[in-house]
Amino acid sequence: LGVLEEYPEVGLIYTAAFGLKDTNQVSLRNIPDPNDRSRVLRQLVASHLDPEQGTIFPSTVLLRRECVEQVGGYDEVLDHCADVDLWVRIARLFPIEALDAATVLCRDSRWNLPGEARERFRSACQPWLQKIYEQIPLEELVSGSPAEAPPLSDMLEAYGERAGWMVQGNLLAQAWRDLQKAEDCLSQVDAETAAKATPLSPLVNVLQLIPPSSAEDSPLLQTMLAQKVRAKAASLWACGSGLVSIVMATHNQAPYLRQAVDSVLQQTYPHLELVVVDDSTDETPDILAEYTDPRLRVIRFEKRLGISEAFNVGFNATHGQYVGRLCSDDLLAPTMVEVLVRTLQENPACGLAHADYQEFGESDRTVSTEGVTFESIYFHGRHIGPCWLLRTEILRQLPRPLFDDLLRGVEDAAFYLDLFRVARFLHVPQVLYYYRRHEQQLTQQILDTTGFGPLLLRMQQRYDEKYRLPWQSVFPAARLDADVRVLFVYFVALHGGIEATLRNRIAALRKHQVEVEICIIEDQGGASLYRGLCRAHIIGSRDDRMVLSQLVKLLREEEYDIVTLIDTPMAYQALREAACQAAVIVEFHAPRWVDRMKPATPKNTDLLIAVSQFVANRCQQENIAPGVPLAIIPNAVPLEDFQPNPAVLKQVQEQLELSPNQRLIAWVGRLDPPKNYRLFLRLARRLADVRDDVLFWMAGGGEYPQGVENLKQMVSELGLESHLRWFPLIEHEDMPAFYHAVAASQGVLVITSVVEGFCLVALEAMAAGVPVVSSNAPALAEALAAGPVPPVYAFHDGYP
């Protein structure tokens, strides 16, 4: 753990181990040295093939989570070698490290397996070795020259003797030499020759030049060589257009298969590959074997994968700049790929292009996919249909697995929900796909068996769990077609970050046609933020009996779908007495609110919201409402409100008589101890002693009489009267002008807080282009990491 923390670029670390043999003999096992980057893949592969060369025991491995997620996690298709397969994929992208110290005692008996288990081991290793050879270039395995190949070849030969698999001792070295010859052949095919030829002729000619020496004896090697040549040839005759990968998953669809494959290979856009994942038990393998087009690649499995896992395997094996999918009983229109590629090329901001489709067979209708939104997919199961093309860089941003086998029947809709988070969709109003309706259709069989409603609910729950957004408990699907009314209940409204946060949220909800009201127990000036924005109920008292009676009256007279409580523990009793049926949310914006709300928060609350991981941790430590979902939803600012307005900025500069050479150093917040404003004043004094071009601005805190007295006294004691300007109150709509004045002076915002739940002013300042200098108080790092562009500087020695 120490190594991973010290070196954040390292993705994997492993250690030595004591090997306990069946004879109870204990020995220290060597480990592969990770320092030689050119040989690290050879070591990982070899360590699994021959323990005498150095073994990595899975129990000694520590992996960095984000690295595991980036490479796609464990390959569920592999019954064996899934661990070393994951290590190899991580080692290709990230440095790995090793500690030459034994940390575990491992039973070392895999080469002494009894007969039946030994046979299972032999057969189980074959898919992994095939995957290694297919997906990792031989250059990486043999490290640069034929002279270095024999050691790994010897290991393969030794493995062949142990596992009984047909591995020739010189296969790898010969394959490396063949690849070198193939590269020489490819170098003779220049772009000019390729441009004059038909799209496939350069590829076919080069394939004919490949030496057949070892390829004839190894179909697997022949496949590797074809992939190598295809990638090179595609770059020559693509003529500026990207390679397109179409993935097809097929299971016992032989009657329709030829039509589906031909519809891809006969596209008007020829620069493509078709990856077919086949786990059929009918004549499908024989049909696929009839094709000689090198653009067709078949991945064959003897066991049944299921539609989701088959597509996962296929997408992981693609090489194209764009990817799409095709079911083996459907057809592509001849111009489908050409039209969608052109759409993506003409619209670089678009991540996915989709078109309409035509049903045929047992149904005959045209389906338009225009107007599909995230909401229509999530709440109603509508989706963009089967006709789409996606940029590969977008695909790489999605969580794995791409298609969830637990969502059979709606796995494609769940896939589109993930895409909506990272990509912009563009609709093409043309029919470019033909969707066959027939009795043997797998999706329809699942829907007939399970029903669409339960599948939709399962998809929503999986999505919510994945992104930690348990909205289903707050927005029941049955009520989504009706108007939603939300009531926020807040204790004391001041001019501060919480009030600004609520204003931003209410404005955003109104844009989505949500009817919002706010109930304020006591107004100390903050209610003005909601004037003209929403209906506000002001109780105007801190007397518990008065507050309770007014809340009960409001909840009985009005019908709300959701009631959100913020620092108002007495509201629970009002909800009970009013027999309110609304969903209840409790928001925690500061650690002190956790202590205040803990005794009152019942277990029948529908949702807890924390504005930061720091506040969420506090909720969990205090065991707030066990079993109630807890969502972390950070505060946000509307960026459009903080765009510079030159006219307003000039007016502010003139009114405040700002010198063009003055640098403004600003501080915003309440005048109370947690904000630590005294530290800012001491910093101002020290900086004013060495700089004559700085002016210090403080904004806020006018509603705290004691804080105001302390501020005036300290300013006088430090002699800052001519260096500091204090604004007791700045209206919310005027805060952007305040920040823009600071930004125009090349100044900074200083945050000195001892503790924060989130700190909205940091985001506001950065949205206006103001750099931030901050203490290292909890939760501030989270807020600052989410900021737009300007830099953030932290006090290295913490806060006094």
Describe this structure in words.
The chain has 800 residues and is α/β, with parallel strands linked by helices. The protein contains 31 helices and 26 strands. The strands form 4 sheets. Strands 5, 6, 7, 8, 9, 10, 11, 12 and 13 form a 9-stranded mixed sheet that branches. Strands 16-15-14-17-18-19-20 form a 7-stranded parallel sheet. Helix 31 (780-785) links the parallel strand 25 and strand 26.
What is the topology?
Elements: H1 2-6, E1 12-20, E2 26-29, H2 40-49, E3 62-63, H3 65-70, H4 82-93, E4 96-107, H5 115-135, H6 138-142, H7 149-163, H8 171-187, H9 191-196, H10 201-209, H11 219-237, E5 244-250, H12 254-265, E6 272-278, H13 284-289, E7 296-300, H14 307-316, E8 322-327, E9 331-332, H15 336-346, E10 352-361, E11 365-367, H16 374-380, E12 388-391, H17 392-395, H18 411-420, E13 425-437, H19 442-450, H20 452-467, E14 485-493, H21 497-511, E15 515-523, E16 535-538, H22 544-557, E17 562-566, H23 571-577, E18 583-588, H24 591-597, E19 607-610, H25 613-621, E20 630-632, H26 646-655, E21 663-668, H27 677-690, E22 694-699, H28 705-718, E23 724-727, H29 735-744, E24 748-751, H30 760-767, E25 772-774, H31 780-785, E26 792-794
Parallel strand pairs: 1-4, 5-6, 5-8, 6-7, 10-13, 14-15, 14-17, 15-16, 17-18, 18-19, 19-20, 21-22, 21-24, 22-23, 24-25, 25-26
Antiparallel strand pairs: 1-2, 1-3, 8-12, 9-13, 10-11, 10-12
Helix pairs in contact: 2-4, 7-8, 8-11, 10-11, 22-23, 26-29, 27-28
